[in-house]
Amino acid sequence: MVNEILNDTKDHMQKSIDTMKKRFLTLRTGKVTTSVVDDVKVDYYGTATALNQVASVTALDATTIAISPWEKSLLPDIEKAIQQANLGVNPNNDGDFIKLFFPPMTSEQREQIVKQAKSMAEDAKVAVRNVRKDANNKIKRLEKDKEISEDESKKAQDSVQKITDEHIAKIDEALKSKEADILKV
């Protein structure tokens, strides 16, 4: 029973880290990547659809992304979706595809993006702590119901804390790496 709780705790905490890393991909670094447009949703026949499902998205170089829709009639909708996504660039539509030219980031922009990354990391830490709280409550319930002894409960809660500390360290490590990536000119 306790092992099951500990395994669930590890799984849920790892999912929190994975979510944070996925969110990190949407942040701009010195070199632009196609993941910057991952959150852009296009109105595709009345359905909000991910941009990469209605067009080919490629990074041409460190500052340019090209978007080639599979249906030319979608160009205005894609252009509108990019403007609404507030990516900090205006789409250039040449009738066949859209290019996004990202200017080099200023130090203020880099600092702002680092703040966003720190906020995402803090959200992940809160999620990990909530998982810890749930696990500890389950363990205490087992002790209260006399399914495990007080010593086993204490030992299990210590294990949950160790797991929590490991995952918090992973979050800090990922943040440090992303921060270095963002600040690298």
Report strand %. 15-25%
So what's the oligomer here?
single chain
Q: What is the alpha-carbon Rg in Å?
A: 22 Å
Low-confidence stretches: none
- From N to C, what is the helix and strand string? HEEEEHEEHH
Into how many domains do the coordinates divide?
2
Query: What strand line-up does the widest sheet have?
Result: 3-4-6-5
Q: Helical residue percent?
A: 55-70%
Q: Quick gist of this model?
A:
The chain has 185 residues and is an alpha+beta fold. It has helices spanning 2-24, 75-85, 107-144, 150-183; strands at residues 41-44, 47-50, 55-61, 64-69, 91-93, 98-101.
Task: Give the key terms.
single chain; 185 residues; alpha+beta; Topoisomerase I, Chain A, domain 4; Gyrase A, domain 2; 2 domains; four-stranded antiparallel β-sheet; 6 strands; 57% helix
Structure explained in plain terms:
The structure is a single chain. This protein has a four-stranded antiparallel β-sheet with strand order 3-4-6-5, covered by helices on one side. It has a two-stranded antiparallel ribbon with strand order 1-2. Helix 1 (2-24) runs antiparallel to helix 3 (107-144) and helix 3 packs antiparallel against helix 4. It is 57% helix and 15% strand. The chain is elongated. With 185 residues, the chain is of the alpha+beta class. The protein contains four helices and six strands; from the N terminus they run H-E-E-E-E-H-E-E-H-H. It has two domains: 2-25 and 106-183, Topoisomerase I, Chain A, domain 4; 34-101, 2-Layer Sandwich (Gyrase A, domain 2), CATH 3.30.1360. The chain starts with a helix and ends with a helix.
